[in-house]
Design brief:
This protein is an all-alpha fold. The chain has 3 helices and no strands. It has helices spanning about 10-20, 25-45, 60-65.
Length: about 70
């Protein structure tokens, strides 16, 4: 039994070709992925506690940057 989809083969091909040639599609996906990862990071930080050895002050960051 053949499966039916909302799009025909020609419509899917046309859409795929249009997305390949567009300049906004990939940056849009990157922006959406970044926003999703930021939300996930905020949620994870509220639950997970890092070890005290992983916490640094601004003085430590200044010292590392001053070395380079």
């Amino acid at each position: 039994m053949p499966t039916t989809s909302a799009f025909s083969w020609a419509q899917r091909f046309r859409l795929r070709q249009r997305l390949k040639g567009s300049l906004w599609f990939v940056p849009l996906l990157g922006g959406l992925l970044g926003a999703g990862l930021a939300a996930a990071d905020i949620a994870i930080e509220a639950v997970v506690q890092v070890p005290p050895a992983w916490r640094y002050s601004s003085d430590a960051a200044t010292g590392v940057l001053a070395q380079s």
